[in-house]
Write a structure and sequence with these properties.
Layout lengths: L6 E5 L6 E6 L14 H8 L6 E7 L4 H13 L4 E10 L1 H6 L5 E3 L4 E3 L11 H26 L9
Length: about 160
């Protein structure tokens, strides 16, 4: 059985435009052999050129993997249109920020939240987890700021 990807590429034979369907949990690495990493996503993204449309229906997942996908789409030479047909939640909302334009179904949902993690250990390890959460939040806010034009002074809480 092959690995299940959280994305699928479709090419319109008439226009040549590629469509990326991002459907499922965004994952950096495979725990059960059922996810594929952003490294393989990059390989598939760069196999073609021209404009792409990204359909998102994802509850999110690994913020680091989402950041890599966001950067890949931001650096992509063609136009990237994002369409949210179901939900772009959590880390998937950051991927959506790479689109120009970003379009949402009238019944679609977009969800952002404060960063969260699970940590275990002593005071030093807990402090490191707190600092990591702050740094990750800043990175996510950067993507929202760039897209919306809103100041960092806006309360992103």
């Amino acid at each position: 059985m092959g690995k299940r990807k959280f994305w699928n590429w479709v090419r319109d034979s008439d226009t040549g435009e590629r469509t990326l369907v991002l459907n499922g949990t965004i994952a950096e690495e495979s725990w059960f052999g059922d996810e594929v990493t952003p490294a393989i996503f990059r390989d598939e993204l760069t196999k073609g050129d021209g404009d792409i449309t990204v359909w998102i229906n994802s509850l999110g997942g690994d913020v680091y993997a989402a950041a890599q996908i966001y950067n890949m789409l931001m650096d992509y030479k063609g136009k990237v249109t994002v369409r949210i047909d179901g939900i772009a939640a959590s880390a998937a909302s950051m991927v959506a920020m790479a689109g120009e334009p970003v379009e949402m179904s009238p019944v679609g949902m977009f969800m952002i939240h404060n960063t969260a993690t699970v940590a275990i250990g002593d005071k030093k390890e807990m402090q490191a987890a707190i600092e990591m959460l702050g740094e990750v939040k800043e990175g996510i806010i950067n993507a929202y700021e760039l897209k919306t034009g809103l100041s960092h002074d806006v309360q992103w809480h």
